């Protein structure tokens, strides 16, 4: 099993640019989660999907952030426009009918 | 507000020292509890979890944690740390029958050789 796949692993962009982070969950999993990790706040849940439907997006910081899950094997997290304070590591995780979440390797985003 | 608290941001120990990392939560209902570890440059890995039964949980790599319901705590322990335990440790909580997992801010452990 390849595990949860995230791309890119590292992203450096300038303030104001659009950033798209991608996630491929483990095949067969029906829940997908996006997290953001920073030194100040630790690990925060941004949004999660169940059966491709967004269930709770209360953790999304503001309207510049959006997430989609067009099918069971792919999800994106988009930031438009990006700001320096968005710099963080973004994790995607997936699970199936249980509480154990399998985390991807993360995408390290730097906005200059 | 409901939260998960890890009181130590950074802990520095020498090899063979004993470790205890604190974790407290403020949820009032039944909870499931987890400790995750993130080694430098790697993604999160599950160390151990508590769902029910014996409140003293044994995990991988010699780690254990004790659930004390009256104190709303789930502290992580290891009798003798190794240099390879240098990592960041996250405590996490899920409310029973709730799909929302909440993490603490993490504790960075540095073990000096």
In short:
The complex is a heterodimer of chains A (112) and B (113). By secondary structure, chain A is mostly beta strands.
How large, in whole angstroms, is the Cα Rg of chain A?
13 Å
Mean model confidence by pLDDT of chain B: 88
Shape designation of chain B: globular
Radius of gyration of CA atoms of chain B, rounded to a whole number: 14 Å
Pattern of helices and strands of chain A: EEEEEEEEEEE
Multimerization status: heterodimer
Strand content of chain A is over 45%
State the major sheet of chain B: 6 strands, mixed
Mean pLDDT of chain A: 89
Run of helices and strands of chain B? EEEEEEEEEEEE
Low-confidence stretches of chain B: none
Instruction: Count up the helices of chain B.
Output: 0
The portion of residues forming beta strands of chain B comes to over 45%
Distance between the termini of chain B: 40 Å
Name the helicity range of chain A.
under 10%
Number of strands of chain A: 11
Low-confidence stretches of chain A: none
Strand segment count of chain B: 12
What does this protein structure show overall?
Chain A has no helices and 11 strands. Chain A is an all-beta fold. In chain A, the strands form 2 sheets. In chain A, strands 2, 4, 5, 6, 9, 10 and 11 form a 7-stranded mixed β-sheet that branches. In chain A, strands 1-3-8-7 form a 4-stranded antiparallel β-sheet, with no helix packed on it. The model of chain A has no long low-confidence stretch (mean pLDDT 89). Chain B has 113 residues and is mainly beta. In chain B, 0% of the residues lie in helices and 51% in strands. Chain B is built from no helices and 12 strands. In chain B, strand 7 (56-58) and strand 8 (64-68) form a beta hairpin. Chain B is globular, with a radius of gyration of 14 Å. The relative contact order of chain B is 0.34. Classes of the chains: A mainly beta (112), B mainly beta (113).
């Amino acid at each position: 099993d390849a595990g949860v796949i995230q791309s890119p692993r590292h992203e450096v962009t300038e303030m104001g640019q659009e950033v798209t982070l991608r996630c491929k969950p483990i095949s067969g999993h029906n829940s997908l989660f996006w997290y953001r990790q920073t030194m100040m706040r630790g690990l925060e849940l941004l949004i999660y999907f169940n059966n491709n439907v967004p269930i709770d997006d209360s953790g999304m910081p503001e309207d510049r952030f959006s997430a989609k899950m067009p099918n069971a094997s792919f999800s994106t997290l988009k930031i438009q426009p990006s700001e320096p304070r968005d710099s963080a590591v973004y994790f995607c995780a997936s699970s199936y009918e249980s509480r154990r979440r399998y985390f991807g390797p993360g995408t390290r985003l730097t906005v200059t | 507000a409901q939260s998960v608290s890890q009181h130590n941001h950074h802990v520095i120990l020498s090899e063979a020292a004993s470790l205890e990392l604190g974790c407290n939560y403020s949820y009032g209902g039944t909870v499931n509890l987890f400790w995750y570890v993130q080694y430098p440059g790697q993604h999160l890995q599950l160390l151990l979890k508590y769902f029910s039964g014996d409140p003293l949980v044994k995990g991988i790599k010699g780690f254990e944690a004790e659930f004390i319901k009256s104190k709303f705590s789930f502290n992580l322990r290891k009798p003798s740390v190794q240099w390879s335990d240098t990592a960041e440790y996250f405590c996490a909580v899920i409310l029973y029958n709730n799909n929302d997992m909440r993490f603490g801010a993490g504790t960075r452990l540095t073990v000096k050789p």
